[in-house]
């Protein structure tokens, strides 16, 4: 039979190695990987089923096809339970063998692609990919190393553009969950409340008008992995209650279903607002806050870690020079570096990246010059009050009779938003970038404060 199969498969373009016994087959598999292994259940030596076990110990994703003259149900079940890809019974047709082999090769290719993708994602999320020269960011990296192996919920706090998602990815891909499940991102701020629950929990067919088929929710997709809930402070109170159940009970109920489904996910949440203040104002559940706040990682804004500006800028120069096929040195002159380090960076690392991308594209020489930078970086007098940390506003507050903290914070927010809108000529997207928040958050604040411009 070995010779017949070798002839058949060789004629179809496959490279074939032969083994007479189970022991010889296992030894050959140890020496080099194979796309597909064909094993006869009744082969000499340790036999096919024992050889199957040993091969799968060497490579749990090996594609092994069993051939047996004893095509009983019990034999097939035993092989499948051990992890066989498929079973072929004797006598077999050439077409059946070739189709099963082709299916096995296709499965092997998909497994390899998935492994390569996983390695690529893991590499992109390694701590070494986080640029951290400053003491503050080195402390963040140390904390990532400590919390990654745990199951506990993590809350990442920081302004927009500071790299909270990068931190979340590093936590997932440096944890055992990188091998057992996906990293799924949910941008809570960009999904309307009525659609968010459907995205998170899924629905059954017929759950609502237009639900023509069942849909898995993102929690089910991420089973065994991690769910990153970005801008969790924008989630509605009703959805917050359901999130609390997922954290406490490790279960959820899809829309249109009555029985809960168990799920094993790690929740990593991020916010750019003060959740304690949101709790005090009744916008965020206190019990959910304490469930999320098991481990907190604070990502400092770029203005508080100016030592990171130079290595970050050099990284972005190399990145966008390569993407745009430009021969550009990552050397930065003292004059340009002085401007970069003096600017307030309200949009943090994301704004720095955008500024460097633009500078790389318009650079005429072999390095970035002052003229390549945006006007607000070269001449930023309108951001003087930002760089002073808002001291000019605080000096006008009369503490002698006491104040309402939240009223003063609201007044300061209104002033900042008005200044940003004035600076950008009413352009909300650009104003949001300058303020370090997303456009949806800015728009909701404009409506809440009834700001006219």
Alpha plus pi helix count: 22
Instruction: Give the total of beta strands.
Output: 12
CATH topology of the largest domain: Rossmann fold
The helix content is 40-55%
- Identify the CATH architecture of the largest domain: 3-Layer(aba) Sandwich
CATH superfamily of the largest domain: P-loop containing nucleotide triphosphate hydrolases
As a percent range, the share of strand residues is: 5-15%
Largest sheet entry: 5 strands, parallel
In whole angstroms, the N-to-C terminal distance is 84 Å
Alpha-beta classification: alpha/beta
Please state how the strands of the largest beta sheet are arranged side by side: 5-8-11-4-12
Rounded mean pLDDT is: 84
CATH class designation of the largest domain: Alpha Beta
| Low-confidence sequence ranges | 385-392
Please provide a written account of the structure.
It is a single chain. Helix content is 50%, strand content 10%. The chain has helices at residues 2-11, 22-31, 48-58, 73-82, 94-124, 135-147, 164-173, 177-180, 193-201, 218-221, 237-249, 275-280, 286-292, 309-323, 334-342, 348-362, 375-378, 384-387, 391-394, 405-423, 428-435, 439-448; strands at residues 37-40, 64-68, 86-89, 154-157, 183-187, 202-203, 215-216, 226-230, 251-252, 261-262, 266-271, 295-298. It has 22 helices and 12 strands. It folds into 4 domains: 2-121, Rossmann fold, CATH 3.40.50.2300; 125-300, Rossmann fold; 303-379, Helicase, Ruva Protein, domain 3 (Orthogonal Bundle); 393-448, Homeodomain-like (Arc Repressor Mutant, subunit A, Orthogonal Bundle), CATH 1.10.10.60. The protein starts with a helix and ends in a 5-residue tail after the last helix. By secondary structure, the chain is of the alpha/beta class. The longest helix has 31 residues, at 94-124. It has a 5-stranded parallel beta sheet with strand order 5-8-11-4-12. A 3-stranded parallel beta sheet has the order 1-2-3, with helices on both faces. The protein has a two-stranded antiparallel ribbon with strand order 6-7.
